Amino acid sequence: MRAAVLHEIGQDKLEVLDDVEAVGFGPGKVKLRIRATGLCHSDVSAMSGVLPQPAPFIPGHEGAGEVIDVGDGVSGLAQGDRVLVCWLPACGACPSCRRGQTHLCLAGFMNAGTPNFKRPGGDVFGFAGTGTFTEEVVVGAGCAVPIPDDVPFDIAALIGCGVTTGLGAAINTAQVDAGSSVAVIGCGGVGISTIQGARVQGAAQIVAVDPVASRREAALRFGATEAVPPDGLTDARQRITGGEGFDYVFEVVGKSATARTAYENTRRGGTLCVVGAGAMDDNFQANMFELFFDEKRILPSMYGGGDVLRSYERAIALWRAGRIDLESMITHRVRLDGVNDALDQMRTGESLRTCIEL
């Protein structure tokens, strides 16, 4: 079986190999044939060591495909079913799940430390317990979510992570008010989805902030009312809000520096929503007086901040109704052999989302 493998953390290239085997199939598990997978920035962050992940590993967590086989005890899934991969399935029994915060369930993370692939040289892990840069993968049944027949695999893959994360940040976590002002810092795939979520919510002004000109141009097509480079944010704040600051600012980069910029551009009493996944040693700082005096809400948003199954359904409904554009988010397509080209396109900001077709 073919798969793209990172041998050591810190390497910037993947090796496409044909001697990989998906392992771990048994009760409660399903084996999937991956048909399409998106390249998410979290994959790059895991490769560089920003996000913790044992190696060697197969990146990819934003995938869709078909069920090949179903283990004992699995209900609701059968061979041939079309599914998307949920990298953070809810167990339904832990305290977070019982509180209705299923997106905070840690059951899925427990799988990240168990290899679900092997090669002649030893075990191989799948990123976030999945690993979709491969032809086949074995995952827990909760990771395989059935999708309707009219949803293409590439669209379903995007819904599996980036779209759900961005839409949910605006709709579930921040709950953007109609008529409000919004700034989105970082306009890759998740940032573009955040912009679309703010538009769906009825925001009056949506300012996209990104250093890459092509991403700023794309943001305008997806609903931003204007797009500026980082050094243009202060002027935009002055023009749009009279210098007060935006009602909502979304940080979709995962850096303390941009989170601080987001905080400073949020109005008093406004909302800073942290969407980007950053490093454990990158500390955000705020002094105790400003926290008290400005009363800005700081809301982290994990995987869209809501029940992911409901979020998937909502994304599909909005897409079917033409309220969000998912097809145009896929700016590049490659086969598995072109995965390193896809990585380069993401690092330079050339792509919004690259679909790897298998």
Can you walk through the features of this model?
- The chain is of the alpha/beta class.
- The protein contains twelve helices and 19 strands.
- The chain has helices at 41-48, 95-98, 107-110, 153-159, 162-173, 189-201, 213-221, 233-241, 256-264, 288-294, 308-320, 339-348; strands at residues 3-5, 15-17, 21-22, 29-38, 57-58, 62-70, 82-85, 117-119, 122-126, 136-140, 144-146, 181-185, 205-209, 226-228, 246-251, 266-274, 297-300, 330-335, 353-357.
- Helix 5 (162-173) packs parallel to helix 6.
- The radius of gyration is 20 Å and the shape is globular.
- The termini are close together.
- The model has no long low-confidence stretch (mean pLDDT 96).
What labels would you give this structure?
alpha/beta; 26% strand; globular; 6-stranded parallel sheet; 12 helices; 358 residues; single chain
Secondary structure layout plus pairing:
Elements: E1 3-5, E2 15-17, E3 21-22, E4 29-38, H1 41-48, E5 57-58, E6 62-70, E7 82-85, H2 95-98, H3 107-110, E8 117-119, E9 122-126, E10 136-140, E11 144-146, H4 153-159, H5 162-173, E12 181-185, H6 189-201, E13 205-209, H7 213-221, E14 226-228, H8 233-241, E15 246-251, H9 256-264, E16 266-274, H10 288-294, E17 297-300, H11 308-320, E18 330-335, H12 339-348, E19 353-357
Parallel strand pairs: 5-9, 12-13, 12-15, 13-14, 15-16, 16-17, 18-19
Antiparallel strand pairs: 1-2, 3-8, 4-6, 4-10, 4-19, 6-7, 7-11, 8-9
Helix pairs in contact: 5-6, 5-11
